[in-house]
Amino acid sequence: MSSRFIFMISLILLVGCREEAPTPLFEGNELNEYQKIVADYSPPTYKWGYLTKEGTLAIEDKYDDLREFNNGLAAMNISGLWGYVDVFGNEPIPARFRTVGTFTEGIAVVQDLNGHFHLLEKNGQPITDSLHYNEVKNFSEGMAVYSDGLNFGFLNQKGKIAIEAEYSYATAFTNGMSIVQKNGKFGIINQKNDKVIPIEYDKLWSPSNGLLRYKKEGNFGYIDLNSKQRVLKSYTSATDFQGSKAIVHDGNNYFLVDKNGSSEQLPYSFIDVGGEGKWMYSANNKFGFLNNDGSVLTLPQYDLLMRYREGRAGYSINDIWGYLDDNGKIVIPAQFPLVWDFVNGYARMISQYGFGFIDLNGRQILEPRYMEVRDFSEGLARIQVYR
Are 241 and 232 in contact (CB under 8 A)? Predict the structure, then answer.
């Protein structure tokens, strides 16, 4: 009897019987592993649920752990086992796994209690027999990174090997490219395992605005993705391009450079990416923002800054946080002990009473009274409730 058949029967029985039998149905070695998990497991004092933007508890806080929603499903944990819950609070795939991934491209990677991986459809049906690998990551562009314990390669959506495990590091495919490492050096391959960028660099970063940042022999530079040729000079440090500009350092000074190699020296002690086309800089031990062309957006008057996201950047004065708008003006005065980035129009914040959310204008949409909160995804935020 195949391992896939046994796995399918077990999952079907579990789905069909969970109202009458809340304890997962395991047998053989999985039963032994389940008993070990139960014996060692300590549930959290406060449980997790999901909240709407109106503050309504959409899904009861009964879970030991939760993840963000993606394509209508979120990973949930009950008594140390993982499964999936939908936005209505149904559990289409019960908690019976050691680990689970995010549903991407209609497929999730799960690991049973024997340590074997499976590919699941959204209805819970397995696509593959047990996959005996050390690691299988989420799918991206039709492929998933897998590890045989020594190296990394790629599987297709049927669980078959598409690229053999020959790399010591590999990223998910993005725009048909994966950054890989072999013999201590980095390069880029395509989905046919052709070497798009030779494996000869000390470090590579994800492409930005048509250019790939690299480090080689202690210096930084750029590769044009169209010509596959190195462009510009090499520098002691360099940022990714934001639009047509990047910040580089020659060992003595910072420069703003464009893709043609034109440069302008900037008189600051520190400059880094500020998000959404802006640069963060420091002068006299304070921080401010520059526009993309190097002109001053805000004076260096803040103790700490967060990068821009969704037109807002957190700033701190005397350990109290507020937000700047896209023009560098204070839109939310400093009043919070701690804040986070805006995601989908809302930001997490904390007060003396707990965690809550504010909108882009600083209005509290959820009062700070929760033990813990996470960002909204598909209209719901996972929260930990005081009881």
Answer: no
